[in-house]
Design brief:
Strands 12-15-16-11-10-18-19 form a seven-stranded mixed beta sheet, with helices on both faces. Strands 7-6-5-8-9-21 form a six-stranded mixed beta sheet, with helices on both faces. It has a three-stranded antiparallel beta sheet with strand order 3-4-22, with no helix packed on it. The protein contains 15 helices and 22 strands. The chain folds into two domains: about 250 residues, Aldehyde Dehydrogenase, Chain A, domain 1, CATH 3.40.605.10; about 190 residues, Aldehyde Dehydrogenase, Chain A, domain 2 (3-Layer(aba) Sandwich). The protein has about 450 residues and is α/β, with parallel strands linked by helices.
Length: about 450
């Protein structure tokens, strides 16, 4: 049995029998068989069902949000916002997929030549617990609209969310074999990827998980897309709007209790404004309300698992032992971790070098633009960076210097269905969302006509 436990009260939320090897094979066989008819459906037919999925999400957002809150502890208001965003991505691809995948005519020596975009078939998604609906829908909406079939291996602590997602698609009118949640342990993923009927795989998760999946997919010569961790920098220049920058940085670090790949995890602040910024930032963090994730006033809930909180505690302890100074927070109670701000963090400390997946952030100062850029690029991660400045010309000049997959100016890094999302370095490869995302799992077919 795979069981999920509420991290706030330690009560069992859901349990489900893990698929046997035969059940896995049967699910893949049914998915592959159904693909033969699904790929022939029109965009209009798929659009109708995808819009129905968006409607289902909106109408029953509280039901789906509560499942998320119970399984991984996301504060309920943030959980509802996640469900609403899932509806948005469904609507986006319902309205845009046909145009994005329309044949592209190219003038050559041929009488007619073009590129067509055709579905690959069965695609496996290996998904994490921190955004248990959004991570899945940002894969599933474009994949299904492109004519592919989805198989989901969800994180074991959010299996009820996985079941709910399959339910959403079925309630919306998608045939049962179009999208299937397979309750599996991580040890079963390899056999699924190696199955000849599975044509591609996408994973959002850790570096180790990504490396393993990419290695197996590579051996099988199958397409893979990886969205891995991040250690995004929040770069605060002296000429920023200080009040607004503080608000945005608090949101960037502490939403979802800091458990986000694209959260701001390194505060890099210009020396001349560091004291003023830090004072305002710490004050704002102290005002964040912690408590029961089901309470609509709660902003900081519990972390998803106690072992994750312990890992964060170790990173904090290591940095403090090397000279960092806790300005607020720092205490853990089981899976709950106080919102924590740490000063005097240097570039060789755990809080700077490693990904911190929880409500802790360290402050590091810089003297000039070049030093700030070097600090950002020093990271092995390359998911995104936020810079805060009122000087638009300077921002434009700095953007090309950052090695990340995204640069946001005067805004937190966030995913948007209209923009490509993905990273560089150990943050992964490939892109999700936008036209770039839907084209990751299609066959870009060259078609060339001539006559004798």
């Amino acid at each position: 049995m795979i069981k999920s436990t509420n991290p706030y009260n330690q009560k069992e939320v859901f349990s489900i029998k893990e698929f046997s090897a035969n059940e896995v094979e049967d699910a893949i066989d049914r998915a592959d068989a159904f693909f033969q008819s699904w790929k022939k459906t029109t965009f209009a037919e798929r659009k109708e069902k995808m819009l129905a999925a968006a409607k289902e999400l909106k109408q029953n957002k509280k039901e789906y949000a509560e499942t998320m809150t119970q399984e991984m502890g996301k504060p309920i208001k943030q959980a509802i916002a996640e469900i609403e965003k899932c509806a948005w991505v469904c609507e986006y691809y319902a309205e845009n997929a046909e145009k994005q995948l329309s044949p592209k005519n190219i003038e050559t020596d041929a009488e007619k030549s073009y590129v067509s975009y055709e579905p690959l078939g069965v695609v496996l998604a290996v998904m994490p617990w921190n955004y248990p609906y959004w991570q899945v829908f940002r894969f599933a909406a474009p994949a299904l609209m492109a004519g592919n079939i989805g198989l989901l291996k969800h994180a074991s602590n959010v299996t009820h969310c996985g079941e709910k997602i399959q339910q959403i698609f079925e309630r919306a009118g998608f045939p049962k074999d179009c999208f299937q949640h397979m309750p599996l342990g991580s040890d079963k993923i390899e056999s699924v990827i190696r199955n000849k009927k599975v044509k591609a795989v996408t994973l959002t998760g850790s570096k180790s998980a990504g490396s393993s999946v990419a290695s197996i997919a590579g051996e099988e010569i199958k397409k893979s897309v990886l969205e891995l961790g991040g250690s995004n920098a929040l770069v605060v220049f002296a000429d920023c709007n200080l009040e607004e920058t503080v608000k945005t940085c608090v949101q960037a670090r502490f939403q979802n209790t800091g458990q986000s790949c694209i959260a701001g995890k390194r505060l890099i602040v210009e020396e001349s404004v560091a004291d003023r910024f830090t004072e305002k930032f710490v004050k704002a963090v102290k005002e964040l309300k912690s408590g029961d994730p089901m309470d609509e006033e709660t902003f900081i809930g519990t972390m998803a698992r106690e072992d994750l909180a312990k890992d964060l505690e170790k990173q904090l302890k290591d940095s403090v032992e090397n000279g960092a100074k806790i300005l607020t927070g720092g205490k853990r109670d089981k899976a709950y971790f106080e919102p924590t701000v740490v000063d005097k963090v240097t570039t060789d400390m755990s809080l700077f070098e490693e990904e911190t997946f929880g409500p802790v952030i360290g402050i590091t100062t810089f003297k000039n633009d070049e030093e700030a850029v070097n600090m950002v690029n020093q990271s092995d991660f390359g998911l995104g960076v936020s810079i805060f400045t009122e000087d638009r010309d300077k921002a434009e000049q700095l953007v090309p210097l950052f090695e990340d997959g995204a640069v946001f100016v005067n805004e937190l890094v966030k995913s948007d269905p209209r923009l490509p999302f993905g990273g560089t370095k150990i943050s992964g490869y490939g892109r999700e969302l936008s036209e770039d995302g839907i084209k990751e799992f299609v066959n870009r077919k060259t078609v060339y006509f001539n006559s004798y």
